[in-house]
Write a structure and sequence with these properties.
Elements: H1 3-26, E1 53-56, E2 62-65, E3 89-91, E4 97-99, H2 103-113
Antiparallel strand pairs: 1-2, 3-4
Length: 115
């Protein structure tokens, strides 16, 4: 095999691997732990109580409609994400999924975000 063919093969394989890895990341095949952040504590969000909704994002900070394509987050941890651990991800009055805005959640978000 000549040098041009070898280099071309290497480039094609590298592109294929890159696209494959990107696809796996966007489909949540690769766990968030594989993409470390500075200091990301373990967040275990409460399971959604409504089968029409799902929890997503690297830190469990996104509540969205179960039928929608996964929303990607930037995988940056914020202290206020811990507030969602004890909050319900359910269908709201507007018909879309969202975090139930309990007094506990609002207080926690205000405390963690410094407002």
């Amino acid at each position: 095999m000549n040098k041009i063919a070898t280099v071309t093969t290497i480039i094609i394989v590298a592109i294929a691997l890159g696209l494959s890895m990107r696809s796996m990341k966007t489909k949540n095949i690769i766990p968030p732990e594989a993409f470390p952040t500075d200091s990301q504590p373990e967040i275990t969000p409460r399971k959604e109580t409504d089968k029409k909704c799902k929890i997503g994002g690297c830190n469990g900070e996104i509540c969205q409609n179960a039928d929608d394509e996964d929303i990607m987050s930037i995988c940056q941890y914020k202290d206020e994400f811990a507030c969602y651990k004890n909050t319900d991800c359910t269908v709201q009055s507007d018909g879309n999924c969202g975090w139930t805005q309990s007094e506990e959640l609002v207080n926690c978000l205000n405390e963690k975000s410094g407002t």
